[in-house]
């Protein structure tokens, strides 16, 4: 009997346990990559707000906050599924983002959904096609992503849709708060490392425009790879 009573308590305690913190031995390196990907663009009104799909529902929340702030009259949520999101968003990332926005009071008439894209280049290309099909002129776009995806999203969008005026934004959370919101410190660090690698690799492959990568960022990236944060790396 004691076993049956204590097991539910143990499971509840595990669910409520705080997310492990960033290990101190690598904190400075993680912070350096985090700061590098934050483009710090000044927000300004745009024709369309685009929320890039992924595992982070905070993207949808930030899009809603910007919509309410009057930064754009139309939202496009873009994204199908990936192995890392299919369990959480079985109907597709963009579909679940739309549902989140509707739950928060955004009118359905202000939301368009692009449900096919499976990478950032497709996010941008299919969004452009969607807007063109609707006869919507888009000279400026406020592109919302996960914080560590900003730089890659910018570089990709400038390659795919160079004529559009681009502003990038993400939820304004300090690194530790973001880790807590995601609930998985290793996932955040691996994603940071993977996106840092992609900035250079994707530019070489012609998927994105080139971005400057300072030597201290390269050093931080190398330290984290050596420390074993390699699950999101692509073959170069």
TrEMBL record:
CDD domains: YdcF-like. It comes from the Bacteria. This is DUF218 domain-containing protein. It comes from Saccharopolyspora shandongensis. It holds the Pfam family DUF218. One of its GO terms (cellular component) is plasma membrane. Residues 52-161 form the DUF218 domain.
């Amino acid at each position: 009997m004691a076993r049956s009573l204590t097991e539910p308590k143990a499971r509840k305690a595990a669910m409520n346990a705080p997310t492990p913190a960033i290990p101190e031995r690598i904190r400075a390196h993680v912070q350096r990559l985090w700061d590098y990907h934050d483009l710090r663009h000044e927000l300004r009104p745009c024709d369309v707000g685009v929320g890039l799909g992924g595992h982070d529902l905070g993207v949808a929340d930030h899009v809603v906050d910007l919509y309410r702030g009057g930064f754009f009259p139309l939202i496009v949520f873009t994204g199908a599924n990936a192995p890392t999101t299919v369990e959480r968003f079985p109907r597709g990332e963009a579909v679940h983002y739309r549902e989140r926005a509707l739950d928060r009071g955004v009118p359905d008439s202000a939301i368009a959904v692009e449900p096919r894209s499976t990478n950032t280049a497709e996010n941008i290309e299919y969004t452009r096609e969607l807007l063109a099909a609707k006869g919507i002129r888009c000279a400026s776009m406020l592109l919302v992503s996960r914080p560590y995806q900003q730089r890659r999203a910018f570089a990709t969008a400038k390659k795919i849709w160079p004529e559009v005026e681009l502003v990038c934004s993400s939820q304004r959370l300090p690194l530790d708060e973001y880790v807590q919101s995601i609930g998985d410190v290793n996932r955040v660090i691996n994603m940071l490392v993977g996106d840092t690698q992609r900035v250079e690799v994707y530019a070489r492959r012609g998927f994105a425009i080139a971005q400057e990568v300072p030597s201290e960022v390269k050093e931080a990236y190398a330290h984290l790879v050596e420390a074993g944060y390699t699950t999101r790396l692509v073959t170069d």
